[in-house]
Amino acid sequence: MTREALKSKVAGFPAVPGVYLMKDARGIVIYVGKAKSLRARVSSYFHDGLSDTRPRIPGLLREVADVEFVEAESEVDALLMEARLIKDLQPRYNARLRDSKLYPYLEITRGEEFPGVYVTRRHDNPRSRFYGPFTDVRGLRAAVQLLQRVFRFRTCTLDISESDPRRRFQRPCLLHYIERCTAPCAGLVSRADYLQQISMFQRFLQGKRARVRTALEREMQAAARSLDYERAARLRDQLRALDALASRGSLDLFPEAVQPPVVEPRQGLEELRGIFGLEKVPRTIEGVDISHVAGSDAVGSVVTFIDGRPFKPGYRRYRIKAVEGIDDLAMIGEVVERRMRRLLEEESPLPDILLIDGGKGQLRAALDAFSRAGVAPPAVGALAKREEVLYCGEPPIEVRLDRRSVALRVLQYVRDEAHRFAVHYHHILRAKRVRPS
Asked: If you average pLDDT over residues 182-206, what whole number do you get?
């Protein structure tokens, strides 16, 4: 098939998520890729002014004689389908992906009573089940967050045993309160039920969406017949979340997110435990910042990190309501107070650490906000830009962390992401205000 014939063919591809397969003259698949829009993505290969600078692409295009596609229900399905096809078909131009240890895998541990689900670049643990490799680590992490809405698996690294009597005293993390985890850490789900969740999840990863849906429906009806309405409602919500993947299964959750530092978060959290004098290693960190221009279009942001990584469904943004003019400290206080009052209303746990973008003044404003909200503050700190000095405690003390400290890099990541999210919302409001009607 000539280049012009290929251009004409792909122009008729649907503008939906899916996977495309490029074939050589013998009909052998030589490359597999995924797309948010099949028509837009595949057409980009055949534009006259091709801008793709990857070294293998020119050679690939010289060999392509035909292109086929397979539609997917969502970007999540396309991501999983791409990984399965690469593993099954072994396309030549995906060879570097197949052979490299740098690409991410999805790991489900099998050597634990309550298996965990992780994104990893190592796949040599014989006691785990691995899916992949995937081409896009950011897309994979976004997919995990979306799939947690359905299967509610744990992503923490806690050592959980069904026979541990201390589980009933454990406080679940934020993921349980927003219905992303069934909280085996706190004994809120039996091992049998949790393993059934994981089994459903594995079937979904293998492309058996219809079977998973049928099984959930059957369980829901059985629960309703036995008058177990709480379980029936939970299964109903899982079914709705599964159906919503087709319409809301976009991997572009927050396209402008700050790139994470290349560190091991666990090490940084261990360091933060000592810095703040905590009894346990902190799991949840929230970052707060504000953004405005001369007091106009003032907004605040709260970003949530779990186990050292951003948890986008926990992000919140605020329009400043009670502060007029330029008063950064009062704005910080308003955002913190509103956030804490909401957590109290929802009976949600406070973060283990609250980090403010700023110095002593911002820290003082945040602590005053806790007093107004009637909430005992968790560990609260403020990280000043440029000097990168951490202020914490009451009265505030100055902590100068080593520039190579992993704890500092984790705090910088939280602080910078809170700043990015606040600025992004501020730009949205300004654009709305100045846009001509």
From this structure: 92
